[in-house]
Amino acid sequence: MRYSDIDQFLTPWAADRGLHIFTECKDEEVRVIQIVDDMGDTYQLYAGPDPKDKNYPDTPLALIGVSLSKRGDKKHHAMFRERQKFTFEKRVPLTEIEMTLNAVWQQALEWISDAGHSRSTK
Predict the structure, then answer these.
(1) If DSSP codes are grouped into helix, strand and coil, which group holds residue 54?
(2) pLDDT for res 83
(3) Which of 28, 53, 66, 110 could in theory staple to 59 by disulfide, Cβ–Cβ 3.0 to 4.6 A?
(4) What are the φ and ψ backbone dihedral angles of 25, each rounded to 5 degrees?
(5) Three-state SS for 39?
(6) Distance between CA atoms of 78 and 27, rounded to whole angstroms?
(7) Coil, helix or strand for 108?
């Protein structure tokens, strides 16, 4: 599975929610969407070939997940221990990408709500 396989699902999914997809970070190809709540907490939704697969980047499964990146009141990224509590990811075949994007999106919205924060959504 390559990014081009994932993009056919991710691009329209993100557009429906008014989300921007970052495609490059430090000269590496990525697919990352930042989700920011009203208090500035930032979560990163990511999708791509499973980097732990020995056949990377031609992997049979996509890795799709979301994790806490930064607390709004902090200058730096969230600490490792805190990120562990706020990470949700799945390895899925192409046929389950859209369903899994919905699941990780809902997880991020739940974390936002549980913190007493909000985010306007479409």
Answers:
(1) coil
(2) 57
(3) 53
(4) -145, 120
(5) coil
(6) 23
(7) helix
Model confidence over 11-48: pLDDT tens digits?
Answer: 999 999 999 999 999 998 999 999 999 988 999 999 99
Report, in angstroms and rounded to the nearest whole number, the Rg of the chain calculated over CA atoms. Answer: 14
Integer Cα distance of 114 and 19 in angstroms: 22
**Following CA atoms 109, 104, 26, 83 in sequence, which dihedral angle do they give, to the nearest 10 degrees?**
70
Q: What is the token pair recorded at 25?
A: 């970070």
What pLDDT does residue 69 have?
85
Terminal CA-CA length for the chain = 29
pTM of the predicted model, to two decimals? 0.86
Look at the chain and count its residues: 122
